[in-house]
Design a protein that fits this description.
The chain is mostly beta strands. The chain has 1 helix and 28 strands. The strands form 8 sheets. A 5-stranded mixed β-sheet has the order 2-9-8-4-6, with no helix packed on it. A 4-stranded antiparallel β-sheet has the order 1-3-7-5, with no helix packed on it. A 4-stranded antiparallel β-sheet has the order 18-21-20-19, with no helix packed on it. The longest helix is centred in the N-terminal third of the chain and has 11 residues. The radius of gyration is 32 Å and the shape is elongated.
């Protein structure tokens, strides 16, 4: 073969020349952590971490999409980019933190968002990422009405879900809330002794099983929370039964075969409490190894089954509180002074059902009637709890209990 021909064959055997490829466009990407924010009742600030998840330096700015200036944004560790809005410039893999504030101007559950705009420096435009916001703001942390069928109704507070319901069967007896600021849940007591969680309350299995309608009240220990909620069930004969790992009690009163016990309270230190009988008497009991609380004089109606509820005033030391009679009368005991504005009174009508102090305003609170109405009472006239918050109301005596925190 000639030399020229051999060179041509060799050239044909070589791989083709590669065509140059332009460099890939810079990838701009950011992420937010958490990807959404929830402001529970009483929460005012959260951190939002922005991370550059792309391959190129990126600039971003943040703007709230919400009315009435309810959402405030500021740079916590972000440097800003000169646009006037919070934001920053981040190299690949870098992060910074925005501070998100909630300044509520309206009640209820609200759903807004933070809009993040990002792209190449210096302006950071061209792309968007939304961070959803869920915000809760109510007049109270927890104020709920229980109806006879088990329905749990919020009174100016956050709705809670997951509770029992017995349609057409009036078997619900009492309601207890987990005593933490955001009130994650609680328990409904049925007449047979069943303890039913709602919200994020932990399930319990050691509740009493009476087999007939004799359960009357339920109270939780002051230390109860969403992972551990010990408490007690009161039966109509005066027995106090622990559940949820609560310590046993030592009682001073018990009426076998006599359905006269109405309600109970537990002291703020968890050392004991009192059982209210239908005639108005208060009977101390101790919890665990504690000494029983002192005997307590109270309004008393011998032979008249008029007492309906008892409530301790959380702001008093030594012990003080009130009992409520069926006609709406409010009767102080212990260190509780008489009320200058005691609320409504329905003579000879069995209509009052529950009484609760407002934890945020000592010596003020509400009386609940059998139809669901809430009526303010106070140590002095012109209380902050008047007028009462929105409440459910029925044309029949369906309201069973009122729980507050």
């Amino acid at each position: 073969m000639r030399k020229g021909a051999s060179l041509l064959v060799a050239a044909l055997a070589l791989p083709p020349l590669l065509t140059p490829v332009p460099a890939a466009a810079a990838a701009y990407s950011i992420s937010a952590s958490p990807s959404s924010l929830v402001f529970l009742q009483g929460e005012s600030t959260h951190d939002l971490t922005i991370t550059n998840t792309g391959t190129a330096t990126v600039s971003f700015n943040a703007n709230p999409i919400a009315p009435f200036n309810e959402i405030g944004l500021s740079n916590k560790t972000c440097s800003g980019i000169g646009t006037g809005a919070p934001g920053g410039t981040l190299g690949a893999g870098q992060s910074c933190i925005l501070a998100v504030g909630f300044n509520p101007t309206q009640l209820g559950a609200q759903h807004w968002q933070i809009q993040l705009t990002y792209g190449p420096p210096p302006d950071g435009t061209g792309n968007q990422l939304a961070v959803p916001l869920t915000l809760y703001h109510y007049a109270f942390y927890g104020l709920y009405t229980l109806d006879a069928y088990g329905g749990i109704h919020p009174n100016g507070c956050q709705p809670l879900s997951g509770g029992p319901y017995w349609r057409g069967w009036r078997i619900a007896r009492a309601l207890a809330l987990i005593p933490t600021q955001q009130v994650p849940g609680g328990y409904v007591l049925d007449g047979l002794g069943g303890v039913h969680p709602f919200g994020n309350a932990p399930a319990v299995s050691d509740w009493p099983r009476f087999g007939w309608d004799i359960a009357r009240d339920i109270k939780l220990m002051p230390t109860a929370n969403s992972s551990d909620a010990p408490g007690y069930v009161l039966d109509g004969w005066g027995g106090v039964h622990p559940f949820g790992g609560a310590a046993p009690v030592r009682q001073t009163a018990y009426w076998p075969q006599f359905d006269i016990a109405k309600k109970m309270v537990i002291l703020p230190d968890g050392s004991g409490g009192y059982v209210l009988d239908g005639f108005g008497g208060l009977h101390p009991f101790s919890i665990g190894s504690s000494l029983p609380p002192p005997p307590m004089a109270s309004a008393y109606w011998p032979g008249m089954n008029l007492a309906r509820d008892v409530e301790l005033n959380p702001g008093l030391s030594p012990i003080g509180g009130v009992t409520l009679d069926a006609w709406g009368g409010v009767h102080p005991f212990g260190s509780q002074p008489a009320l200058a504005a005691p609320g409504p009174f329905w003579p000879y009508r069995d209509v009052a059902r529950a009484i609760r102090f407002d934890d945020a305003n000592a010596n003020e609170g509400w009386i609940m009637d059998a139809y669901g109405g809430l009526h303010a009472f106070a140590q002095t006239p012109g209380s902050a709890t008047s007028p009462a918050p929105p409440y459910p109301y029925w044309g029949a005596p369906l309201a069973v209990d009122l729980a507050a925190f």
